[in-house]
Amino acid sequence: AQSVSQHNHHVILSEAASLELGCNYSYGGTVNLFWYVQYPGQHLQLLLKYFSGDPLVKGIKGFEAEFIKSKFSFNLRKPSVQWSDTAEYFCAVNEGSARQLTFGSGTQLTVLP
Amino acid sequence: DAGITQSPRHKVTETGTPVTLRCHQTENHRYMYWYRQDPGHGLRLIHYSYGVKDTDKGEVSDGYSVSRSKTEDFLLTLESATSSQTSVYFCAISEGAVGTGELFFGEGSRLTVL
Lengths: 113, 114
Description:
The complex is a heterodimer of chains A (113) and B (114).
Chain A: E1 4-5, E2 10-14, E3 19-21, E4 24-25, E5 31-38, E6 45-50, E7 56-58, E8 64-68, E9 73-78, E10 87-95, E11 102-103, E12 107-112
Parallel strand pairs in A: 2-12
Antiparallel strand pairs in A: 1-4, 3-9, 5-6, 5-10, 7-8, 8-9, 10-11, 10-12
Chain B: E1 4-7, E2 10-13, E3 19-25, E4 31-38, E5 42-51, E6 54-57, E7 64-70, E8 73-78, E9 87-94, E10 104-105, E11 109-113
Parallel strand pairs in B: 2-11
Antiparallel strand pairs in B: 1-3, 3-8, 4-5, 4-9, 5-6, 7-8, 9-10, 9-11
């Protein structure tokens, strides 16, 4: 079965620091990749997605992610975080032909003002 | 925001009682999903539906059943609630299969089983 690993459970950064959150998956075939964000007290919303093409994907609020197929990774990055980026971030993977989306366990990001 | 309404938003119940959570959408999307969110586990798929009366099991379906008699409603039932089912439950919808687009999530239903 497909699995998604987010090794960083809690990341604490100061404002203006750079961010990179790791995401690795186990499926070796065609995949669709997503990052979702959950702000405190809110529902999940999509940050960015990768289906095909340019492996560097840009999303909302200055976030980007890079798909590295050889490493089975889809890491999320942001050059300079803000206090408002405090949230929980979830990586999710869909095997190309599947109807399901498998989520990682999430990374809680705390940005200190 | 996508038109997704979950009810109830909060519920406390006792072990052994039946519980039904409702997800209502106004988007006419074909696919609907029920996830549970638990600390350290992220979101895990319970059941999903790909059309009226068409449902399938997800990763953690034991102890849960679902029904979808109308496009807009997807019900999640715990026939006999257990403390291990204490969780936050999220409904999600998508227009097409998940590999073709994004999921839109509801606000969540927090269930506590005593």
